[in-house]
């Protein structure tokens, strides 16, 4: 692609950012969609997030993604925020407006699209979420707001799960998110639940690690999503599949959150064949053979 005087800049702010695959996704999207845009990473040091956002606006940056550790802190630098992102209290996409950046959470849109595509409906379902960290937050909100009947957050540190459950129940005015320890995996009251694995257990290079050992937990589930994509087949996914249940990794979620951000920045719809091409390119870059 050719950088010209007219080329608009988008980028990723966070720390660290240098291993991100987002530049590959967005620059490929720009190329295939013939959009005059370039995407780069900006490492932002601790304490500088608000000056970084205001500087980016002054430099006419079109849009930004936000990653760890700034998804909450960035909110103070916005002129407006999407309703769901406000409830989640986490923003991963800034869209330029006339008066500043508006914040969105496209992580949640990414997971929703991955689930829809896999034919997994949350409505009326029992959902078990493993983990209560940053990634679990948007996912718990999605599950509770998409009509899950009950949501169990199972976490090594139960207090952290409890704080998240309280936040979600309060923000959505419901009483259906429950905090439990990982041991509760043996006691889920209903069968056929959907499991979403958000812990860092099983992440490369600890590929044999699994957050819940008990085979019965997997036998009683109906489907599983692991938000990890490296390795492409986690121990969690292998265990699900060994029990005859469908299991998905987090690569599509990563792709779809980026596509949703690209669409917001450029006010367009990316066709499915373009998304498929970018997915292929991502897998190639990450040496994933599926
Ligand atoms: P992220 O933003 O990716 O969610 P995080 O906020 O550090 O990352 O959260 C990591 C999650 O993995 C947490 O739920 C963490 O459990 P704790 O809240 O108890 O720390 C979970 N986790 C990490 N290592 C774990 C391990 N060895 N066993 C069980 N859970 C683990």
Low-pLDDT stretches: none
Helices, by number, come to 10
Helix content: 25-40%
Kindly report the average pLDDT value: 96
In whole angstroms, the N-to-C terminal distance is 29 Å
Cofactors, ions, other ligands: 2'-monophosphoadenosine-5'-diphosphate
Strand content: 15-25%
Instruction: Give the overall shape, derived from the CA principal axes.
Output: globular
- Characterize the main sheet: 6 strands, mixed
**Cross-sheet strand order for the largest sheet:** 2-1-3-5-6-4
Structural class of the helices, strands and pairings?
A: alpha/beta
N to C succession of SSEs: EHEHEEHEEHEHEHEEHEHEHH
Task: Give the tally of β-strands.
Answer: 12
What is the CA-atom radius of gyration, in angstroms?
Answer: 19 Å
Summarize the structure.
With 290 residues, the chain is α/β, with parallel strands linked by helices. It contains ten helices and twelve strands.
Give a description of the structure.
The structure is a single chain. This protein is of the alpha/beta class and 290 residues long. Helices cover 38% and strands 20% of the residues. The chain has helices spanning 22-33, 49-58, 83-88, 106-117, 134-145, 158-171, 215-219, 235-242, 251-266, 272-285; strands at residues 8-14, 37-43, 63-66, 80-81, 93-97, 100-104, 126-130, 150-155, 177-181, 193-197, 221-226, 247-248. α8 links the parallel β11 and β12 (247-248). α4 packs across α9 and α9 crosses α10 (272-285). The two termini are 29 Å apart. The site of 2'-monophosphoadenosine-5'-diphosphate has 15 residues, from α5.
Name the descriptors.
290 residues, 6-stranded parallel sheet, 38% helix, 20% strand, binds 2'-monophosphoadenosine-5'-diphosphate
């Amino acid at each position: 692609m050719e950088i010209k005087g007219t080329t608009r800049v988008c980028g990723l702010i966070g720390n660290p950012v240098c291993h991100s695959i987002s530049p590959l996704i967005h620059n490929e999207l720009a190329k295939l969609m013939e959009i005059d845009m370039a995407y780069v990473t900006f490492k932002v040091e601790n304490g500088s997030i608000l000056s970084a956002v205001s500087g980016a606006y002054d430099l006419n940056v079109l849009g930004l993604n936000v990653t760890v550790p700034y998804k909450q802190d960035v909110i103070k630098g916005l002129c407006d925020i999407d309703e769901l992102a406000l409830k989640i209290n986490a923003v991963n996409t800034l869209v330029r407006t006339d008066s500043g950046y508006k914040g969105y959470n496209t992580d949640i849109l990414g997971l929703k699209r991955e689930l829809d595509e896999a034919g997994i409906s949350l409505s009326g379902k029992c959902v078990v979420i493993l983990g209560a960290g940053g990634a679990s937050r948007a996912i718990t909100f999605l599950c509770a707001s998409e009509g899950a009947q009950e949501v169990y957050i199972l976490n090594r540190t139960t207090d952290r799960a409890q704080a998240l459950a309280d936040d979600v129940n309060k923000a959505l005015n419901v009483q259906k998110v429950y905090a439990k320890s990982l041991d509760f995996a043996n006691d889920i009251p209903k069968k056929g639940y959907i499991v979403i694995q958000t812990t860092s257990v099983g992440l490369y290079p600890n590929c044999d690690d699994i957050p819940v050992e008990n085979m019965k937990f997997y036998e009683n589930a109906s489907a599983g999503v692991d938000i990890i994509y490296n390795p492409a087949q986690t121990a969690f996914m292998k265990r699900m599949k060994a029990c005859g249940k469908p299991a998905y990794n987090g690569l599509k979620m990563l792709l779809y959150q980026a596509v949703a951000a690209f669409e917001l920045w450029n006010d367009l719809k990316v066709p499915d064949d373009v998304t498929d091409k970018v997915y292929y390119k991502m897998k190639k870059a990450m040496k994933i053979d599926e």
